[in-house]
Amino acid sequence: MATSFAHRATGVALSAGTILLAWWLISAAAGENTYHFFALCAGNPIGEIVLFGLVWSLAYHLLNGIRHMAWDIGIGYGVSTANNSGVIVLALSLIATVVIVLLSHRIWR
Fold first, then answer.
1. Which 8-state DSSP code applies to residue 7?
2. Domain range holding 42?
3. What per-residue string of b and e applies to 86-103 under the rule 16 or more CB within 10 Å gives b?
């Protein structure tokens, strides 16, 4: 149940994240001053938390979607298998998010 709720919540978060993506692209196209304001917002601690959450939402939604595709072809329906795959999806999504964030800080900082 928790993984189902998280899948739906991350889908909503990704939809909201599309607004941030549009803001980023529009500010980049609008010029240096506009982009600078976006960079200030995205680079402060709250902005970094939001970006971390969006990266995690994408990683979780992707991995859990793969899990759902396995279910669609009849793999992993057992209760213990479903519980274990849920834990694996959560762990892998967190690991992927941390790796992506650390790599992005190393590249762009």
1. H
2. 2-108
3. beebbeebeebbeeeeee
Rounded to the nearest 10 degrees, what angle do helices 32-43 and 45-72 cross at?
Answer: 80
Evaluate whether 57 touches 13 at the Cβ level (below 8 Å). yes
CATH of the domain at 101: 1.20.1300.10
- CA trace torsion 32, 44, 109, 14 (10° rounding): -90
Joined together, the tokens standing for residue 77 give: 């329906």
pLDDT digits (tens, 9 = 90+) for 56-106: 999 999 999 999 999 999 998 899 999 999 999 999 999 999 999 999 888
- Number of DSSP helices (H) and strands (E) in the chain, helices first: 4, 0
Total domain count, the chain? 1
H or E element that contains 46? helix 45-72
